[in-house]
Amino acid sequence: MIESQRHSYHLVDPSPWPISGSLGALATTVGGVMYMHSFQGGATLLSLGLIFLLYTMFVWWRDVLRESTLEGHHTKAVQLGPRYGSILFIVSEVMFLFAFFWASSHSSLAPTVEIGGIW
After folding, report:
1. Could you tell me which residue ranges the Heme-copper oxidase subunit III family profile domain spans (predicted)?
2. In sequence order, what DSSP letters do the residues of the chain get, joined into one string?
3. Residue 1: predicted pLDDT
4. Residue ranges in the chain modelled with pLDDT below 70
């Protein structure tokens, strides 16, 4: 007997993609460092890491789309999460850029004694 859900949220099943993405990022980082220091096999490891990352991104988003469209797990309450997350990300980026340009303008218009009073 299948018990009906008592809430409108989607509890995801265990997924191999977070650890797969982590291993791809590790291979990309180590391969990039090896390539920049001219170690043998660095370019190969960098390429394999990037391919692994792209594959992980593809299959992870495929699973998310499958959950939302075919399986119907993304209810209205579930859809609000990514929407609020995107809005908060954009707001935080606007605040970061505002602070960055404010600090740059302040430093150029009123340089401190520590830097010799010049910009």
Report:
1. 5-119
2. -PPPPSSS---PPP-SHHHHHHHHHHHHHHHHHHHHTT-TTHHHHHHHHHHHHHHHHHHHHHHHHHHHHTS----HHHHHHHHHHHHHHHHHHHHHHHHHHHHHHHHHHS--GGGTT--
3. 43
4. 1-5
Same structural domain, 22 and 58? yes
Question: Is the distance from CB of 31 to CB of 46 less than 8 angstroms?
Answer: yes
What residue has token string 């009073």?
A: 117
CA angle 100, 101, 105 (to 5 degrees): 125
Residue 2, domain member (yes or no): no
pLDDT score recorded for residue 30: 98
Enclosing domain of residue 100: 75-119
* Amino acid present at 96: F
